[in-house]
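User: Hi! I'm working on a homework problem where we have to compare a predicted structure to a textbook description. Could you give me the structure for the chain below?
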Amino acid sequence: MREGAELVDESGCAMGHITSGGFAPSLDAPIAMGYLPPSDAYEGAPVIAMVRGKPVSGTVVAMPFVPHRYFRKTKSS
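Assistant: Happy to help. Predicted C-alpha cells:
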C-alpha cells in the first residue's frame, strides 16, 4: 500500500487514506500507516485499502508494528 491509497469500509464507502507504506523485512510483510476517523481506528478493526483498483484487506494495529528490543541505560550518580 502506498501513500494516497484510499481506505474503504466493507460497503466500499471511503473512510480514510494511507499516509505511508512499504515492506517490513522484520515482519516479512507489507505495512502502512494512515488516517481513519476515531470511531473506526480501534485496534483490530478491519480496513480495506484500494491498491491499483483492487481491494487489499488489512487490520488496525497499535504502533510500533514490531516491539523494540533495546533499552536505555540509566544514569548512575
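For your comparison, note the following. The mean pLDDT is 87. The two ends are 48 Å apart (CA to CA). Good luck with the assignment!
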